[in-house]
């Protein structure tokens, strides 16, 4: 059974800290790994990774994929209170089926 | 950016009532999905559709049903709501390949069944 496991499940940091969120996966016929940010209701897309070792970056957020070790990390530097959210990792099932999500990491950034 | 709308945002209803959660998207996406999410838990796929008149059950068993008569509309129906159906329901859609793995989500419906 395909699965995505995230760690830690929750994290509390102070503003300005750097955090690393982890995502490991076991997916047959792996195609991609996606990161989403869920603040209130709707998850919003952050990154899609398909190739090992190529960092994707957007402002203070960056992510990288390791297809040999089957994991990805999401880094957030100089965290702000607005980064407080649940960060979700997901990967498509084998075949043409939709995404399998991890449980998410709940990040709380305190001033 | 896809536009995808869910109504109602919040619904409190008594046991045994029939309810329909609405989901519409304006981007012409063929693929649409319903996920269920309990607090602090992962999203579970309950239904999906790859086009008009196509519907499939997801990984999580659900007593709900869906229909896809029009591309833009993917409503979810519970014939007889029960307290165990209390949850957040998220609708999503995705564009054609090669970006079909990137889901766009609606704002969700928080359902409470008393």
- How would a textbook summarize the main sheet of chain B? 7 strands, mixed
Put simply, the count of helices of chain A is 0
Q: How many E-type strands of chain A?
A: 11
CATH class of chain A: Mainly Beta
* CATH architectural label of chain B: Sandwich
What Rg of chain A is obtained from the alpha carbons, in whole angstroms? 13 Å
- In total, the number of strands of chain B is 11
The helix/strand series of chain A, from N terminus to C terminus, equals EEEEEEEEEEE
Poorly predicted runs of chain A: none
Total of helices of chain B:
0
The end-to-end distance of chain B, rounded to whole angstroms, is: 36 Å
CATH topology of chain A: Immunoglobulin-like
List its salient traits.
heterodimer, A: 111 residues, mainly beta, Immunoglobulin-like, six-stranded mixed β-sheet, B: 114 residues, seven-stranded mixed β-sheet, four-stranded antiparallel β-sheet, 11 strands
Summarize the structure.
The complex is a heterodimer of chains A (111) and B (114). Chain A is mainly β. Chain A has strands at 3-7, 10-14, 19-26, 33-38, 43-49, 56-58, 61-66, 71-76, 85-92, 99-101, 105-110.
Topology:
The complex is a heterodimer of chains A (111) and B (114).
Chain A: E1 3-7, E2 10-14, E3 19-26, E4 33-38, E5 43-49, E6 56-58, E7 61-66, E8 71-76, E9 85-92, E10 99-101, E11 105-110
Parallel strand pairs in A: 2-11
Antiparallel strand pairs in A: 1-3, 3-8, 4-5, 4-9, 6-7, 7-8, 9-10, 9-11
Chain B: E1 4-7, E2 10-13, E3 19-25, E4 31-37, E5 44-51, E6 54-57, E7 65-66, E8 76-78, E9 87-94, E10 104-105, E11 109-113
Parallel strand pairs in B: 2-11
Antiparallel strand pairs in B: 1-3, 3-8, 4-5, 4-9, 5-6, 7-8, 9-10, 9-11
